[in-house]
Write a structure and sequence with these properties.
Blueprint lengths: L23 E3 L23 E3 L23 E3 L23 E3 L23 E3 L23 E3 L6
Parallel strand pairs: 1-2, 3-4, 5-6
């Protein structure tokens, strides 16, 4: 795919959705700087165990709805490099990742996010979550944000803006 021009791609909606046998994804030098919609991108990739998101450039993204939902084998997700300043919809972004023990969303800018309904819903193995920089002042939907996170023991929301 070295001749593939990805600089003008604006949607990755459902690109890998239901790729039930996909185990690992390495994107290499992917250009995601113009992508606005990443909703359902990896939803239901039930065998996915590893994903390198370090080359994802997300300054234009407004929709991350269900992006990683139901990736039931994944243990960790490092989204610390994501620029989320324009994202309005994060509904169920990480929901139903029952094996996930670690997720880094510490750098998320949620000042423009309106919908965060169920973002961590049913993340049953998650024990620690750092949301100290989350700004919920624009949010209109936050039900089930931590629903069924039955092993969540440490939740850092000390600087939460609401």
């Amino acid at each position: 795919m070295s001749n593939f021009d990805d600089s003008k791609v604006t949607t990755m909606n459902s690109m890998f959705k239901n790729c039930v046998n996909l185990v690992n994804i390495n994107f290499g030098e992917i250009n995601t700087s113009s992508v606005e919609d990443m909703s359902y991108l990896f939803q239901d990739c039930i065998k996915l165990t590893s994903i390198d998101l370090s080359n994802f450039d997300t300054p234009s993204v407004t929709n991350m709805k269900y992006m990683f939902s139901s990736c039931i084998q994944i243990k960790t997700i490092d989204a610390s490099s994501f620029n989320t300043s324009r994202v309005e919809d994060m509904q169920d972004l990480l929901s139903y990742n029952r094996q996930m023990i670690s997720v880094d969303v510490s750098s998320f800018d949620t000042s423009n996010t309106k919908n965060m309904q169920g973002i961590f819903h049913c993340c049953e193995s998650l024990k620690y979550l750092n949301l100290e920089n989350f700004d919920t002042s624009s949010m209109t939907k936050i039900p089930y944000i931590f629903g069924s996170c039955k092993n969540l023991k440490y939740l850092n929301i000390k600087n939460l803006k609401y």
